[in-house]
Amino acid sequence: MANNSGGFNDAFARLHVSEKPIEARQQISTTISSPSPATFRDVTQLFRQACQGLDVGQLVKDPNFTLFEAVGALEIMDPKMDSGLLKPGEDDTPSEIYQPVLPEEIIGIMDQLLSSEMSWHDGAALSQTVFTCLYIDNLLSLNPSSLEEAKFNLPLSESHQPGSPTYQLIHVVLRAYCVGLIKCCERVNLQILAEHTYEEEDFVTQTYNVSLLDFVTVAEINRLLVSAIEYVDSAAAPWPNNIKMALKARLAFRKLFLTELSRDVKEMVDKRSNWDGCITLLSTIGITRNLGTSVPSVFSIAVQRKLASTVPPRPIVQIPFEEAFTIVSRLCKDAKEILRVLAYSGATNLMTFFLRFTARKPQPSTYVRSLLQTLFFSNHIALGRMQISHILLEDVKELCLPADDLFDPRNELSEMPSDTRYQIHQRMKWFVERAGNSYITLYRTICQNRSRLRRNLCHLIVDWDALQIECEEIDGELQQLIKEEPVLHNDNISYAFSLSSWVYHYKLRQMEWIIFLGFELEVYLPHEFAGMYWYLQYFLRTRLQHLERIRHFVHPGVAVDSPLAATRSKECIASAQDVANAQATVNFTLLEAAALQELCSAMIFLYTALSRLGLVKTPPQPYSTDVMRYELRMKPFLSIGCPDVVPFEDFKNLVDNPDIETMEMLEMASENTKEGRKNFDLLSKMSAASSHALLCEEGYRLNLREYLRSCIGAGVAIVMLSKAIKTNTVADVEVEIDQGSYHPWFPVPRISSKKRPPLPAVPPTGR
Amino acid sequence: MAGVAPDALLHSFITKTLRVTTNDTRMFVGELKCTDRDANLILARTHEYRLPKVGLEDVVKARGKVDLTSRYLGLVVVMGGDICRIEVEEVGGGDGMEV
């Protein structure tokens, strides 16, 4: 399923790339050894004459070949398509590679290589980055099959006599660095291919049939790097100490970086990771950055002429060193941070971490997001040492605390199909398998890029909706098996429906995320904001009611009268602590949802008021109508059973609220922001443990602060607008929607007077 | 060739492996999928061959094979005007594998 965006042509290309080379090699060697190969017959005249006989527009083609496929063909001799085309006057002969004599130049090349490597991490192809380095090309183009063969093939010159420091500089120091870097690329590629990411969109894994030293072990390369470091350190290397330090830091970083990129999950669980070492060396690289002299001539686009590529040529991408430095530093820090998930401390904490970590701006790199997926679940093991069922059931317990009997380990021991315990176990087993899959997919989806997350959530909610219905049935059967006592809730006699309640809660959250991400990704136009916030408020209100219901069923004493009470094993009985924990989780979730709901309500009123005053205008929609747009926005939710999609007419009335005066509306909005602010303040006073943010307290608090900023920003906008209405100066008012300075889910209109300079941004809050 | 209808002759080349030399001396070896009046060719599973002018002997000496001059391109279009030579593979015609 991964990397399928290239379509058939790519798949086809890859299929054949892997089997062609041997054949190709044979072909070329025959061509060259025998100048007039007997196997080919010249038909130029014949062919051309036959073609002349065709009518204009007549095609002679393979019946299995469609012109649709031809769209994907590369046009030879077209400079935009043909990577092998020589520019007029350009020579085919590979120019001699410039061989540096100064260690400063080697430092420069190493730093340029780092820039190339990070450009690759950032989404460019290897053909645009690392492979454009003539030294990397020189090393790999002879298809080395061992580490000994992976060396430079350079002409000897007077300044580069074997054994001389200048020679060693290239053939020992630079070679070790290049080999290390290539191997780093190989490890990164392997990791990214192992998990779900989007080819070309997140990352380009294409290696153009060039082997990235996959046959060489990391240990061998580490030895090579160590001996290069030793050489730099030795008296034979006649350079000043600062130069030596710079070279050593780069080589040592390569070694540590490669080691970290090569760790398996088990080593990470055993806490053997050393990203801190990489971070320390990076700081030395940063300090010694100015010692390097860049050598642009050792990078060339001409390398693309040699790469097996079914795509048109692409320009060189080499981000500035500072940017590359930021990317690699962030990569090391992020990779270190995700190891926190291994210190499992409850399912809700884990989910909070995934949500906060992946929402970070800029988003963590593809490599790190891929690694996070592997840490979470690989080889049927979660977090390197756990069953996924354990995390899943803890998640259910943390929120809904189902009856103890469902989790009794004795259930599993029963083998009699007529036994209640056996029957409970069968149903729980079904739940673990069915919901377990959806649960894993949800975590993995959260690791995707933000646009894909939104898109995939639209598919996931359909699955969770089905899961909810299936679980309701199982809940019904379970409640009979354990003889659950009904409870009076909202004047109705009702049962807990714990499993489906949990599923419903997650489904509602995902529905909210879809719309919230619509704001974050700037999918909606300002005139739609009020309507989309109305939907959020509607989902949040539904979730609040649902949470109230869950809270009603989470209390001590549930299922005491179960027929299994007598034989119940002690370890499955929920302790007072468990009950308190579940209640605390529900209360916390209620508070959070309430805070969001208040802020959404404020936004509905605020943006509706702005529309009424003509400050947010509907742009001309020559090919669309409000109804059509509404249908489009609601498309993901149409097939969802509960909550319903509201008919457009009702929706319009509910959002526009024609019966409410604009001033009154702004007063209500102001009340909402005050309430929201109160709730967010309460949330920020809670401990990391009770906020379920143990793994990511910093990110969690930052997110809360951003919510608060949006609250305050909205409050300011409401005051400004009310003042403009009172003083009758609406005509002089200018509105600009600020997506950047606030919470990405709550862009705030900045209201200013046209005559005066714009107001300064709201200062940071929450301290 | 007398008596053979032009399109019948051309049809006999379809799915055969052709070696096409372009005006810039590169060669393209691939399976003919489609052609027209201007002898524009669509070749599938194409490899590009480029003969380096210098350094070839060294390379052959060093490695005993020359694989760096060939590369896989896949599906390509070569315009009739850019072609200076068309050759067809005699034996068997292609490798017998269908796409």
How would the blueprint of this fold be written?
The complex is a heterodimer of chains A (767) and B (99).
Chain A: H1 7-17, H2 20-33, E1 40-42, H3 44-52, E2 60-61, H4 67-70, E3 74-75, H5 103-121, H6 134-140, H7 165-194, H8 218-233, H9 241-261, H10 265-269, H11 275-287, H12 321-337, H13 347-358, H14 366-376, E4 377-378, E5 381-382, H15 388-400, H16 410-413, H17 420-446, H18 450-481, E6 487-489, E7 492-494, H19 498-520, H20 529-553, H21 576-612, H22 626-638, H23 648-656, H24 662-685, H25 697-726, E8 733-738, E9 748-753
Antiparallel strand pairs in A: 4-5, 6-7, 8-9
Chain B: H1 6-13, E1 17-22, E2 27-35, E3 41-49, H2 56-63, E4 70-78, E5 83-89
Antiparallel strand pairs in B: 1-2, 1-5, 2-3, 3-4
Q: Keywords for this structure?
A:
heterodimer, A: 767 residues, mainly alpha, 3 domains, two-stranded antiparallel ribbon, two-stranded antiparallel sheet, 56% helix, disordered N terminus, B: 99 residues, alpha+beta, SH3 type barrels, five-stranded antiparallel sheet, 5 strands, disordered C terminus, cytoplasm (chain A), NAA35-like_N (chain A), MAK10 (chain A)
Q: Quick recap of the structure?
A:
Chain A: Keywords: Cytoplasm. The complex is a heterodimer of chains A (767) and B (99). Chain A is mostly helical and 767 residues long.
Structural summary, described in words:
The complex is a heterodimer of chains A (767) and B (99). By secondary structure, chain A is mainly alpha-helical. Chain A has 3 domains: 7-70, no CATH class; 103-318, no CATH class; 387-709, no CATH class. Chain A has 25 helices and 9 strands. Chain A has helices at 7-17, 20-33, 44-52, 67-70, 103-121, 134-140, 165-194, 218-233, 241-261, 265-269, 275-287, 321-337, 347-358, 366-376, 388-400, 410-413, 420-446, 450-481, 498-520, 529-553, 576-612, 626-638, 648-656, 662-685, 697-726, and strands spanning 40-42, 60-61, 74-75, 377-378, 381-382, 487-489, 492-494, 733-738, 748-753. Chain A has a two-stranded antiparallel ribbon with strand order 4-5. In chain A, strands 6-7 form a two-stranded antiparallel sheet. The radius of gyration of chain A is 32 Å and the shape is globular. Chain A starts with 6 loop residues before the first helix and ends in a 14-residue tail after the last strand. Residues 1-38 of chain A have low confidence and may be disordered. Chain B is an alpha+beta fold. Chain B has a single domain (6-88), classed as SH3 type barrels (Roll), CATH 2.30.30. Helices cover 16% and strands 40% of the residues of chain B. Chain B has helices spanning 6-13, 56-63; strands spanning 17-22, 27-35, 41-49, 70-78, 83-89. Chain B has a 5-stranded antiparallel β-sheet with strand order 4-3-2-1-5, with no helix packed on it. Chain B is globular, with a radius of gyration of 15 Å. The relative contact order of chain B is 0.25. At the A-B interface, helix 1, helix 2, strand 1, helix 3 and strand 2 of A face helix 1, strand 2, strand 3, helix 2 and strand 4 of B.
